């Protein structure tokens, strides 16, 4: 447990997902924050309504890469709220397959997606985690299964299409959240709050 001087903070955890893995990651982030004594608003970017990040002490956004892009509702959200997010502690978990690749070029490409998002929207998160997602072969239609198997094969990933493969490192996610909390507590202490 990270000591925040008895003060729990409020976090917005906003995610976008197509196949469900990023929702699972966002839920893990939210649940870890809650076990550390913080309050969380967990929101799907497809149903944001009035998810104003400015009312939180920090925002952790999570989105997956699909065919080289983050989902449009997520990009729109970040575009609309980028200025507010830049004025507060914000973090981004970028979920992809290529970050788990054996090929360095693919990994570099994965690391470049958040840079391109920043160029497109102006949002510059202070903390970024590149997180491997999942291959849900049993849930894909024929074309998706074929395409993802080809990509996985090129990247040295799992190609057994009879099973799903979760590549997400849950310990790494908790460590990332802990690092953010430590940084925020340090800032609060320095500001004398
Ligand atoms: C149709 C499709 C396209 C994908 N395209 C990419 C891609 O361009 N780059 C990449 O690194 N991962 C790609 N992935 C892998 C996803 O990022 C990974 O499966 C992730 O877990 C999906 O998150 P979600 O379940 O929240 O949608 C793709 C996955 C699918 C199903």
Automatic annotation (TrEMBL):
Organism domain of life: Bacteria
Protein's GO biological process: heme biosynthetic process
Gene Ontology molecular function terms on file: electron transfer activity; FMN binding; menaquinone-dependent protoporphyrinogen oxidase activity
Listed EC numbers: 1.3.5.3
Alphabetical list of Pfam families matching this protein: Flavodoxin_5
Domain Flavodoxin: from-to ranges: 12-161
Gene3D superfamilies attached to this UniProt entry: 3.40.50.360
Keyword terms: Oxidoreductase
Cofactor(s) annotated in UniProt: FMN
Enzyme category, top tier: oxidoreductase
UniProt xrefs under PANTHER family: PROTOPORPHYRINOGEN IX DEHYDROGENASE [MENAQUINONE] (PTHR38030), PROTOPORPHYRINOGEN IX DEHYDROGENASE [QUINONE] (PTHR38030:SF2)
Protein name as it appears in the record: Menaquinone-dependent protoporphyrinogen oxidase
Source species of the chain: Phyllobacterium trifolii
